[in-house]
Design goal:
- By secondary structure, the chain is mostly helical.
- The protein has helices at 2-17, 19-43, 51-67, 69-76, 80-86, 92-121, 129-153, 157-173, 186-191, 196-206, 211-237.
- It has one domain (2-237).
- Helices cover 79% and strands 0% of the residues.
- Keywords: Membrane, Transmembrane, Transmembrane helix.
- This is ABC-2 type transporter transmembrane domain-containing protein.
Length: 238
């Protein structure tokens, strides 16, 4: 257990020293929050009621989809994988360490938004803060599950970045955080429901245990978890 906790702490510190990861976990989401928060609340004052949720969705999606897959791809797509095998360390350990480290980083980033937004932009605080953070944690886990399977499946960094962008951009544009989904064509609104950002945004706005919103996220977690386990098993054989 001590070695396991040390591995998580080490991964957390490595992420802090990785400029690319640091950008996607903290710098870009918080700069976007500071810049767009003022614009959104000035143009449409009603956005104050959902500013915390929308900016958190943006930050988590960016970190999980664009940031978290990179260390995974670098580990399993390099000779480092053999080092784990030679040392008889389970190949699941690197992805678990990365998952937990990324979760902590993204939760911290979202917490910063939660406390700064009311003071900076007079954003409304969720009525049920405890339930809001539970919903946030579920959304982070869901997003990181997708990031994990991306990192395990795609070895080339350039290709990984391109595929991640194809997921990241529609997630934002169709989730409702940029503009209401009601103004979208029905086909695009329906297509947006395959992304966790859409369900996460609605769930975090309610800050309540709505099973109809929670179920799609749980399905994504289970599918990605099973796919990741099968991928790790295949890597162990290769």
């Amino acid at each position: 257990m001590e070695a396991f906790l040390y591995g998580i702490l080490l991964q957390w510190k490595l992420d802090l020293r990785n400029k690319g990861i640091l950008l996607t976990y903290y710098v870009v989401p918080l700069i976007f929050f500071g810049f767009m928060g003022g614009i959104f609340t000035s143009i449409t004052p009603d956005t104050k009621s959902t500013l915390i949720q929308s900016m958190s969705i943006f930050g988590v999606t960016m970190g999980a989809i664009l940031g978290s897959p990179i260390p995974i791809s670098e580990t399993y797509g390099s000779e480092l994988k053999k080092s784990y095998q030679v040392g008889r360390i389970p190949l699941s350990i690197p992805i678990i360490n990365n998952f937990i480290s990324a979760f902590v980083h993204l939760f911290i980033m979202s917490t910063i938004i939660y406390f700064v937004a009311p003071a900076a932009f007079h954003a409304a605080v969720p009525k049920n803060s405890a339930m809001y953070f539970i919903m946030l944690a579920i959304f982070i886990v869901t997003s990181l599950s997708i990031g994990a399977i991306l990192g395990l499946t795609i070895k080339a960094t350039s290709k990984l970045t391109m595929v991640s962008q194809f997921i990241f951009l529609p997630s934002l544009m169709l989730s409702g955080i940029m503009f209401p989904t009601k103004i979208l064509p029905k086909q695009l609104a329906a297509f947006g429901k395959i992304f966790p950002a859409t369900w996460g945004f609605e769930m975090m706005k309610e800050a309540n245990m709505n099973f109809n919103l929670l179920l799609p996220l749980l399905v994504i977690i289970i599918i990605c978890g099973c796919a990741s386990a099968l991928r790790i098993k295949k890597l162990r054989i290769d």
